Amino acid sequence: MQSTLDDSSGLSAGEVKRRHIVGKAVLVGVIAGVLASAFRVALERGEHLRALAVARAGSWGLPVSIALSMAAGALGVWLVRRFAPHAAGSGIPQLKSILLRESAPEWRRLLPVKFFGGLLTTGGGFALGREGPTVQMGSGVGHMVSEVFKVREGEGSAAR
Fold first, then answer.
1. What is residue 4's DSSP assignment?
2. CA distance 22 to 105
3. Is the pTM of the predicted complex or chain greater than 0.90?
4. Following DSSP, what letter does each residue of 73-122 receive, concatenated?
């Protein structure tokens, strides 16, 4: 049964809980959006800098491009393996395992490693795409906000 109406607002306890979670959801969206935008801009700037370095290298352009890509890729792989192995790959399989409760979210390491590791590898010319990393970073932001505000599972839903 739905809980009784709150005397002061006229809302049920479930409705109060749902409305309470909206601000947190908006905060997740804003932070995730800013992070995704920063990631995209950083990737574009990285691509520009890599192209500029290759253009200035003249006849050494191809070897310089290959060397820059190898160095960026190696550094990105090292960051992931050393600090956040769960940040490997696109991030979608890792997110699925968290949703299925097969693994725990580790947003503190995930966010910086995914951002900078993705920037190095994708910006270094690897064909990885930014969509998967952006989704995984967005989920990390959601876990961060829920932990900071101590959101309990099911807090935004109400039994009907």
1. P
2. 22
3. no
4. HHHHHHHHHHH-GGG-SSSHHHHHHHHTTSS---HHHHHHHHHHHHHHHH
